[in-house]
């Protein structure tokens, strides 16, 4: 089954073709970062208009790269939420119309389910097991992106339990805001992480929020304030910025790791899967790998390009649901706020 995936929930247009027989056929992402940088954040109306401009050219490009035409497609998946309503409607409208014109089913995908399943798509053994009808061993998913920080207990595909989440800023948002207050251009998260490589560990010390009490929730907004105070009181030299960046990164990474360990203990699961943009962070990857090894658990990450927003994860999650017989009616529906635990379970079938 060849499924076209369309992602337009925020500021990236992502398109991909996923083939249940062979994996990812082609994918392309167009980032609107330059467009929004001028404003220091995503401007929803500009995002929608840019998706209108980019979605069809990207579909043509992706199909050409895969050596396919629209008539080869067996289904169309699109991000139906959560996200910006106008941006979502662009992808949903294009996907629904295309599927209707081709007389193939369409499926609306939860963006965070896309992130959550992306690591499984990248592993041929796990991917093939899913398409052969076998559920994965239960695992803990750490979703760390620009808008979410969640620990999810995954009992099966479509069976998600929220174990904990951020009470304020998401981890990626904290990276971006912290970068901004130290004068780095939007979105500063990856740049802050790059600068932190030059920083001296321990030169500054920030707290590990909410690790001194039981529970799996997070809070990152206070860290940002600690950084602001340290930065203002400092000489603001390049090397100081690097030291502060390093201390901030260590605080976030440690906090995430402590809660991941607790989530593994609480569930008894032996597998941790990390996804979302902050999953591209090298120090986080190293720390969680170390943590998992010490506990006899395994940790999986998608490659960095599949951590941030992309159409491939939407095509993959959509393919699993389409294979299980799920599909949308002919309306164009999006759900800007959407709780993942309300998703229907997926009864996997052998292809
Ligand atoms: P959501 O998925 O919650 O709707 P989003 O789609 O905007 O949010 P992603 O595209 O998954 O989020 O990830 C983007 C976020 O990841 C940004 O906040 C960015 O700063 C952060 N990020 C990307 N690379 C790194 C890195 N190497 N270190 C830390 N943060 C990073
Ligand atoms: Mg984004
Ligand atoms: Fe995302």
Structural topology:
Elements: E1 2-7, E2 12-19, E3 23-31, H1 33-37, H2 44-66, E4 75-81, H3 85-102, E5 106-110, H4 111-121, H5 124-131, E6 139-144, E7 149-156, E8 159-165, H6 171-181, H7 189-196, H8 221-232, H9 238-267, E9 271-275, H10 282-294, E10 298-300, H11 304-307, H12 312-323
Parallel strand pairs: 1-4, 4-5, 6-9, 9-10
Antiparallel strand pairs: 1-2, 2-3, 6-7, 7-8
Helix pairs in contact: 2-3, 4-12, 6-7, 6-8, 6-9, 7-9, 8-9, 9-10
The second-level CATH architecture of the largest domain is 2-Layer Sandwich
Radius of gyration (CA) equals: 20 Å
The secondary-structure class comes to: alpha/beta
CATH class of the largest domain: Alpha Beta
Report the uncertain regions.
Answer: none
Going by CATH, the homologous superfamily of the largest domain would be ATPase, nucleotide binding domain
Mean pLDDT: 97
Measured distance between first and last alpha carbons = 9 Å
Instruction: Please outline the major beta sheet.
Output: 5 strands, mixed
Order of helices and strands: EEEHHEHEHHEEEHHHHEHEHH
CATH topology (level 3) name of the largest domain = Nucleotidyltransferase, domain 5
**How many domains would you count in the coordinates?**
2
| Fraction in beta strands | 15-25%
What is the helix tally? 12
* Strand count: 10
- Give the % helix: 40-55%
GO molecular function, one term: tRNA N(6)-L-threonylcarbamoyladenine synthase activity
Binding site for Fe cation: 111, 115, 309
Cofactor: Fe(2+)
Protein name: tRNA N6-adenosine threonylcarbamoyltransferase
